[in-house]
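1st attempt posting a full record on here, be nice pls
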Amino acid sequence: MAKSASTKREAMSKVDTAWLRMERPTNLMMITGVLMFAAPLQHAKIKQLLGERFLAYPRFRQKAVNTPSGAYWETDADFDLDWHVRLAALPGASGKAELESFVGELASSPLDHSKPLWQFHVVENYRGGSVLIARIHHCYADGLALVQVMLSLTDTAPDPQQHADLAKTWLKRDGGNLWQRMLEPAQAGMGKALKIGNKVFEKIAQMIADPEVAANVAREGGEITRELANALLLSDDPHTALKGPLGVIKRVAWADPLPLEEVKTLGRALGCTVNDVLLACASGALRSYLLDQGDEVDGLTIRATVPVNLRPLEHAKKLGNHFGLVFLELPVGEANPLRRLERVGACMRELKRSRQAIVTLGLLAALGMGPQALQAPALELFSRKATTVATNVPGPQQPLYLTGVEVSELMFWVPQSGSIGVGLSILSYNGNVHFGLIGDAKRVRDPDAVTTRFAREFEKLVLIALMEDWDSEINAGDAAATLEHELIR
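the predicted structure (as tokens):
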């Protein structure tokens, strides 16, 4: 944040610089969030709230300025809140499809780089209530920090004077989410991640230019540099309907929420975590979609890059990007839902023991301090190794209120980078799990065709668990195979 009111410019961190420079017409570096309300919002009250709480973070009054020698933050002398808080309307008696279309249009529209890179759009007429859509450039903060920023706009009671300390209730969540489970080993190597950015920039350049250098490092290097080399040596993800040339149009969709307690119960019954269940369901939904597109998927595995937080959750209010990325395998070629679940769980456990997140944070720092000429090939090299970005954010398990109006549903998407054209988002809030997809229109013409399959995949696993309870002599694998044959569509 700005050091004082008189400070006009401030050097941007190397990692934030990397995210600023990642922007392409085919992949805008915006985090897009959608908050839905059962009752109407008032535009004037929203603007007042944002002026008081959102702008309490001085960073949001600053422009992100990129130059060949580096990037910096500069206070916008002509800051105009009216430019950043816009009123919008959907046509007629619009429903979910029209809202999804509008959010897709916003996700496809670049922010104005001559101003601070964020906007809020208030949709006044949606199902008798309202919608608030936020667009914030990734260089300002990572997803966890921005979730905390958004939560700071809300209250835990309709009357703000009865507001409880949301931070404490939110941060006391159980350890069932990916970020928290991977937090301790990742934080232990935070210093190593920064040393990568400071000391091995030339080695990274050599690895990118010559795979043989990476192979040698993988055999002989230390723990961190070996992990980097192994990441560089990953094979490219296979070409599917989801992986290919990108356009400039994004489309979004979200599924009806699932009760979180049902997901937890299923996880306990099948001996896995909530995240294992949700990501296995996402894998099954992608498999079914690819089959409908005519792809040969048997035996196929695709990868998702998954953000991993690298700072204590209680520091989430601090802006900036403090996360690494890991490559999670999604076994879309596995026809058996139970085997898919087992493979996702095994990969998650393996990633927990790895240092991939530390390595990628160091790589981002190195790219931020290097020339853009190196960043482009490095970004493309890593984006070729994954088909989608998958995020899982734990939200508060209590109702939230914005200007006294209850938030009924939440959804968000982080940007995809390079040649990645699909993003998967999972967010838990107030006893429900929300699943959404954002995709390049060339790769996913109808994202609802994926999101509607998410609940169906969950139902398959529920049926498997019930069959195991009903008859202990039933072979779970055979039962799963039968269900896959009957329910694949």
